[in-house]
Amino acid sequence: MFESPPDVIPDELTADEYLRLGKWYREKNDYDKARQSLQRAINSSPGSQTAVEARNFMAQNVPVNEVPLRAIERLRDLQLSVITSPRTVVDDCRDLIAEYPTFEWPYQTLAAALLQISQVEEAIPLLEQSLAINPERIRSLASMAEAQIILMNYDKAQIYLDRIAPLVPVNDTPDEIRGTQDIQRYRDLTRSLQILVAIS
Q1: Is the dihedral of CA 17, 180, 172, 161 positive or negative?
Q2: Measured between alpha carbons, how far is 146 from 185 in angstroms, rounded to an integer?
Q3: What is the mean pLDDT of the chain?
């Protein structure tokens, strides 16, 4: 199609071409053009499989609202420290949320850090906020299911897992969805919930 991502998104491409272009921009960390291209894929072929794939790819890989690249890179660094330094992540994520309140990813990262230090009740409203901005992000839905499992609210956990199921591609290759770890986490949580329900 092109030798490199064009500086200006072309007009009159097919839905498939806009989808490929959106993925390409995402790989180059041009999130705004990725969002615009994926939205064109959705708009040019509503209801098609291409539109479904574009919508899902965008939900998992591109923030809903425009965010500076430096904020995304800053969050990536924090995500690497959720397990090893959760208390540091808590403070830094709060700063990021204060600066970019419509950026949904830091809410989930902060919630994940809080779950690591057993502050489950505090994590839930953060996940609610993340899902209010982006209701289809698998990582946020899985974190909410995990929080509900910890609180032994198994019915509520199942509701969030059920919301993930239609978002998981049949062929969950890295090209289909960035986030195979999120899909595996969903599957692990599903198995854990089935066991807990069976023995409760």
Answers
A1: negative
A2: 10
A3: 92
Specify if 52 maps to a domain: yes
Total Cβ atoms within 10 A of residue 46: 8
* Confidence check: pLDDT of 86 > 60: yes
Cα separation of 130 and 105, whole Å?
7
- Do residues 117 and 86 lie in contact, with contact meaning Cβ atoms separated by under 8 Å? yes
Lowest mean pLDDT among 96-110, 124-138, 173-187: 173-187
- The three-state DSSP-derived secondary structure of 38-51 is HHHHHHHCCCCHHH
Confidence check: pLDDT of 172 > 80: no
SS3 string, 123-178, reads HHHHHHHHHHHCCCCHHHHHHHHHHHHHCCCHHHHHHHHHHHHHHCCCCCCCCCCC
Structural domain that includes position 36: 15-61
Contact 153, 75 (CB under 8 A): no
Q: Show Cβ contacts of residue 172 under 8 Å, excluding neighbours closer than 6 positions.
A: 180, 183
Cα–Cα distances (Å) from 174 to 57, 100, 155, in that order, read 11, 28, 31
Specify the pTM: 0.89
pLDDT tens-digit series, residues 174-198: 444 445 788 888 899 999 999 999 9
Domain identity same for 171 and 130: no
Considering the domain architecture, whether residues 149 and 200 belong to the same structural domain is answered as yes
